[in-house]
Amino acid sequence: MGKQATRVMVNGKSYARVVDARLTLADFLRHELNLTGTHLGCEHGVCGACTVLVDGRTARSCLMFAVQANGCAVTTVEGLAPDGQLSVLQQAFIDNHGLQCGFCTPGMLMTLTELLGDTPEPSEQDVREALTGNLCRCTGYAGIVAAALDAAQRLRGTVAKPGSP
Amino acid sequence: MDRRVEPGGDDVGPMKPAPFEYHAPRQLKDAAELLARLPNAKLLAGGQSLVPMMNFRYVIVDHLIDLGGLDELRGTAVVDGALRIGAMTRQRDLEFSPEVARQCPLLAEALRHVGHRQTRNRGTMGGSLAHADPAAELPAVCAAYDATVHALSVRGIRQIAFREFCTGFMATALAPDEMIAAVDLPIWRLGHGHGFHEFARRQGDFAIAGAAALLDVGADNVVRRAALTLFGVAASPLRVEAAEAQLAGKPLDAAAIRAAAAAAWLIAPISDIHAGGEYRRHLAQVLSARALNDAARRAGVEA
Amino acid sequence: MGAKHFGARVTRLEDPALLAGRGRFVDDVKLPGLLHACFVRSPHAHAKLRGCDARAALIMPGVHAVMTADDLPEPMRDTPLPLLLPNPALNVPRTQTALARGEVCYVGQAVAVVVADTRYIAEDAAAALVVHYEVLPAVADCRAAAEDGGPGAHSDLTTNVASTFSLAYGDTDAAFADAAHVFREELWQHRGGGMAIETRAVLAHHEPVSDLLTVWSGTQTPHIGRRMLADLIGRDLQSIRVIAPDVGGGFGPKAIFYPEEAVIPAAALKLGRPVKWIEDRREHFLCATQERDQYWDVAIAVDGEAKILGVRGRMLHDTGAYVPWGIVMPYIAASTVPGPYVVPSYRLETVVVLTNKVPTTPVRGAGRPQAVFAMERLIDRVARELKIDRTEVRRRNLIQPEQMPYEVGLMFRDGKPLVYDSGDYPRGQDKALALAGYDDFRERQEAALEQGRFIGIGLANYVEGTGLGPFEGVTVRVLPSGKVAVATGATSQGQGTRTTLSQIVAEEVGCRLDDVVMTVGDTAAISQGIGAFASRQAVNAGSSAHVAGQAVRQQLIALAARALGVQETDIDLEDGVATAQRGNKPSIAFGDLARLAQGIPGVSLPAGQSAGIEHTAYYTPTQAAYCSGTHVAEVQVDAMTGGVKVLRYTVAHDSGRVINPLIVDGQVQGGVAHGIGNALLEWMQYDANAQPLTTSFADYMLPMATDVPTCAIAHVETVNPLNPLGVKGAGEGGTIPAPAAIVAAVEDALSPFGVRFAEMPLTPERIVATLRAAGAYDRLFAG
């Protein structure tokens, strides 16, 4: 019951699959495409670990079915450093101790990638508000906030490159 | 995610949805036709409330009709003195819409409290109204504006006054074969004031209680028109008519606002694990005063 | 010791892979033929099991097995899971069986497991399973349960009291009889969870050719898990390998050995295919162990100058339906009360009560937040009643540095007398207060009040026994590639164990950080291990890394001296190269030395040379390492809504010598966030039938980025004399005093109304109700 064809562009690569209609986008990415960087922490849309970009905007991949992404472009954490070179934001996470266990981190990165794209000069409050959609139990958020502000500054100081955060 | 369906019964495990058939109509009429024809079908809008309930298997459907491909349900326009919002317009688009900010600033302000940017990116106006969570901001805004819901079915379009739209706890006047096509928010006179205050435990949480206020104040400082809506405190958004009547036709000052807020005294506020009734009753008065004060200030009155 | 790596603010070796989405968590492990499991769990808090009908489930396409207790191997079938920490004071040493037999005693207890092609199908089948229950009365409230005559949490027990014990020293009766003042407080602390963002996870695979059972588990304690599994499944330790790969947060609940860790391997063995189970979030709320949940009735006796004469009282601890970790948590709580203060006499009666809820075992802080809450609330009370500043009351009672080592008079849970090894508590408090701007706070408070804002400040001190034994091991081995392999029984759930141990080894051995190849959390890598709890890894594994690293350094020097024909004292080790500081400075790389150390087949080694370059050390601490600290919280309270915002948070922390300030500060900040959650948000609620009510992240509120300020952190480094590194634990100190400091700050903010609070979490509703009872709104609404 409920098989459906879907074609999704993920990190610039096109995938066509026939999947169960009920398969969530998160499980599709993780188990069909083996892109396990996207994590599931609650499967009810609160923790934000599964956040990805769908057509450039953050979305909970646990609250979307893979078939809904038919024709969409999805970016996952694996797409942030496609050539192995960490992005400015990722490097800022290292420098500011923005992660501990690393499980929530992919979702944090996706949210902040969107934020830095639409708000190049975020205030600390902007960063914190954007992050309310992502729960972290390890860090107490300080390193993540510092990393976001640091990355914003570094990105402003360099030549703006589309999609570079 | 919806927090109103408490666990219980014999299922304590599931976090993956039960199987269903998926339909992605490209035409509005096809969607209406599918909804009329398919048994145990549900509409999928942004999915930010429905999908968690499906993951928990609180909701099990045979057919899911995805409205995501219906571009005709997206967008805003001013029609006959009202801001018309297509049901599938994303909350995040409304949040940054200059038209919304200009015509319905109360909606713009309320949107900042709706979930998180990640859920607003997907969540829609129509989805929120159809879900009719008593603590949700968007139904409260519609109640404040005396909105009109355009309900579409194979039988045509029916207009439902928002006063009649919410019929109870997460229940609406939509017939099983009806879907929301759009909602009209009547535009208040330029220069009116608005205020929106809610109390939630954390940023983006559903409100324990909230108040939305609209005030149209004449140059003579007399209130021409007032709307005060409470949410989170009853089965559906509540217009505080006693307060509105007290304000209308009278000069606006601090005492008038205090008296109006005092009129927001709830007889039977809801009580759940998040808050007891007495606390909600208290918050209703506090937040009414704050919302009215903001509205007054924005209407040019220092109350 | 040089300062090249040790003590440096080194960025973490763990980070690049995790940031690129290349972490390896249990659910990321893919094996051919993998099946997926879903557990069928009791919807009742207490019921007799009256059979199970799996026929409908078994005929569903894609379903491979449904197993109940009867389908488990011997002795797992009816042997309760091992009780890890026995204690003579424990009268009811009850643990659960892997799958329930006869009776279920909490909502979520595992009754059966379904194995299918996908998790989706497994859940479909689980829903089709019919389990017959005869519902029994449930015990939800430990206060009622402690009384005789009520329903039992287990139908065969005549009492719900699992243990009563008394911790005491000195003559409290005399102290209270003679005291100028006695103040009593009744306190309550919520039930909450660890709530790691990665839920628990188990994947088991039996490989028949080698007869090796490999289990990937999101656990803090793989070696302990292997031992327990071996006992339950009747296999030798050598035929089981448990791997804790990347683990997404631990915080205590993942230190427990759970039924799923036994059942999934049993299913894999039975089916001859790998089987995976990923706990979902709701299961985590139902089945992962929880903490806090204590009722305290305590009193303090002081003289006219606010000097403490004694503390006494009674504490009721809700242990849930079973005691997998015995009474360790209430015991820690009871022994933490005196804390950093000179308390001449002390007596606490503790009653541990069984209820029909998921068991309580240590969660970050492990009983200490409750004890600190009790003590600090008492001291605030003394200050208020005697009209002495809260900081001054503390100052008068703090143990002075010259009193170290300080013997409290109790036995700690490590079986050793409670003796604080080192510390400078007054300096810690002064440092925290200075950093927090305590001295000018009253001016700021008055200024805020004039603007209609209620701000307040609170502080709390604590001492924590960290670095508990019995041991942790580290093997250091130089490889022919020149890399330095390090293996340890320590594990990592985000603490940066890999980085910290690499720093220590690189420092000792003289290699680059990048050249350390670390294996953590793998029973195949080192024969003995314990794991992560009690902030123990830097102390235990760190000391072992130091000792093993030193030994390897000696081996490298001896070998290099022989190879280069110089004295050992001439050899320097740096960046993986041994260099003779003589002549033209000949050198030899570690890799070449490792090859030399392999010898030549058939040829005897030179006298004194051992095989290979490697050493394994198991550091065994003689007692706990006592870290300490002072927290200062500044809050703003919206008196009209009861909303609390933490504006500023200051920590002075003594975790001994700091190996990596980046990591230690991160531990403190993260711990404070957990403490803020405990103080203001997190509350696992149950109804009168012990049905859990808060089983989603919407209902159980974790702190968000807008709830936790960035802390100001000061380090007070007093060197621990008992271990070679001088370190103390750092993982839990951030959490322990936070609720006490925050609740005190709320009280201070609302001091114009004279309201008092005695509970955590302190909810806005509670604040409003208390203000209302105090008549505050007559004034506030009028204003």
In a nutshell, what does this entry contain?
The complex is a heterotrimer of chains A (165), B (303) and C (783). Chain B has 303 residues and is of the alpha+beta class. Chain B contains twelve helices and 14 strands.
Whole-number mean pLDDT of chain A: 94
- The percent of residues in helical segments of chain B reads 25-40%
Task: Give a short account of the largest sheet of chain A.
Answer: 5 strands, mixed
Number of helices of chain B: 12
Tally the helices of chain A: what do you get?
5
By CATH, the topology of the largest domain in chain B is: Uridine Diphospho-n-acetylenolpyruvylglucosamine Reductase, domain 3
Commentary on this structure:
The complex is a heterotrimer of chains A (165), B (303) and C (783). Chain A is an alpha+beta fold and 165 residues long. Helix content of chain A is 33%, strand content 16%. In chain A, helix 2 packs across helix 5. The termini of chain A are far apart. Chain B has 3 domains: 21-69, Uridine Diphospho-n-acetylenolpyruvylglucosamine Reductase, domain 2; 71-186, Uridine Diphospho-n-acetylenolpyruvylglucosamine Reductase, domain 3; 193-298, Enolase-like, domain 1 (2-Layer Sandwich). Chain B has 12 helices and 14 strands. In chain B, helix 5 (105-111) runs antiparallel to helix 8 (137-145), helix 10 (241-247) runs antiparallel to helix 11 (254-262) and helix 11 runs antiparallel to helix 12. Chain B is globular. Chain B starts with 20 loop residues before the first strand and ends in a 5-residue tail after the last helix. In chain B, 59% of the residues are buried. Chain C has 20 helices and 29 strands. Chain C has a 7-stranded mixed β-sheet with strand order 3-5-1-12-9-10-11, with helices on both faces. A 6-stranded mixed β-sheet of chain C has the order 7-15-14-13-8-29. The longest helix of chain C has 28 residues, at 537-564. Chain C starts with 14 loop residues before the first helix and ends with a helix. The A-B interface holds A 1-2, 4, 20-22, 24, 27, 43-46, 48, 51, 54, 57-60, 62-65, 67-68, 70, 111, 114-115, 129-130, 132-134 and B 1, 15-22, 24, 44, 47-48, 51-52, 54-56, 64, 66, 68, 92, 115-119, 121-122, 202-204.
Which labels suit this protein?
heterotrimer; A: 165 residues; alpha+beta; Ubiquitin-like (UB roll); DNA polymerase, domain 1; 2 domains; five-stranded mixed sheet; 5 helices; 5 strands; B: 303 residues; Uridine Diphospho-n-acetylenolpyruvylglucosamine Reductase, domain 2; Uridine Diphospho-n-acetylenolpyruvylglucosamine Reductase, domain 3; Enolase-like, domain 1; 3 domains; five-stranded antiparallel sheet; 32% helix; disordered N terminus
